[in-house]
Amino acid sequence: MGLLDGKVALVTGGARGMGEAHVRLFLREGAAVVFGDVLDEEGKALAEETGATYVRHDVTSAAQWRQAVETTVAAHGRLDVLVNNAGILKFRRIADMEPEDFDRVIDVNLKGTWLGVKSVIEPMKAAGRGSIVNISSIEGFVGAEGLSAYAASKFGVRGLTKSAARELARFGIRVNSVHPGAIDTPMVMNPDLVGEVDGEAFVKSMVIKRFAEPVEVSHVVAFLASDRSSYCTGSEFTVDGGLLTGAGY
Questions:
Q1: pTM metric for this prediction
Q2: Residue tagged active-site, from 54, 150, 231, 249
Q3: Domain 8-240: assigned CATH number
Q4: Residue 11's beta-bridge partner residues?
């Protein structure tokens, strides 16, 4: 018996990295999964391999949100879980960052998450309950040099999560945020970031001195998607190997 038996989930940014790990684990735990991305080649390949449904999905587009939700409900008759996973990172110090780069990060990471919450309210109300899991970051708790836009977006996801939790509890919809730390995904291999961060010093600052596998985040996401987290809403779950406890971060 799977943790998510009978659940229907929509996962954004699901073609690779953490999103791919969410898709694979949700399927193993019994959920029916629709996932979106703008990486068509990777998305179609993952769908063919796993049996999940892929939809092209730019999370900054309200129209594409409608299409993704409609595809999910048409295929499975309901929508129980949304994982707002899609996100981008742009390493630039404030003095060097162009306003349009800042806008792009905010649009994807924060506005895209807001649009997701808004888009699933009606189908979750129709289902009588729901769980929304917003993927933030440890940069939603602490600032990091060169990541002003990313940190601003992820701090914003925390506030959005808490407001949505208060608004949607009356409909049986729970909203929580997950805050990954050092996860081994393509995003952390961003050349600008790698060139600026002292990797050895970063690992020394960790309590658990390694990068996490993406599925280690997925297990927390799956718990929040499941009925086992039925009394959790508006809460923040760090998956950072104790990084935020370290004075060196």
A1: 0.93
A2: 150
A3: 3.40.50.720
A4: 35, 83
Measured over the CA atoms of residue 163, residue 169, residue 172 and residue 175, the dihedral's sign is positive
* Residue ranges covered by each domain of the chain: 8-240
Render pLDDT for 28-59 as a digit per residue (tens, 0 to 9). 999 999 999 999 999 999 999 999 999 999 99
Sheet (strand 81-84) strand order: 53-56, 32-37, 8-11, 81-84, 130-135, 173-180, 236-239
Q: 220: which residues sit within 8 A by CB, 6+ positions away?
A: 178, 237, 239
* CA distance linking residue 222 with residue 202, whole number of Å: 28
pLDDT in tens, 143-187: 889 999 999 999 999 999 999 999 999 999 999 999 999 898 886
Q: How many alpha carbons fall within 13 Å on the CB side of residue 201?
A: 7
Q: How many CA atoms lie within 13 A of 139 on its CB side?
A: 21
- Known catalytic residue: 150? yes
Q: Are 131 and 225 in contact (CB under 8 A)?
A: yes
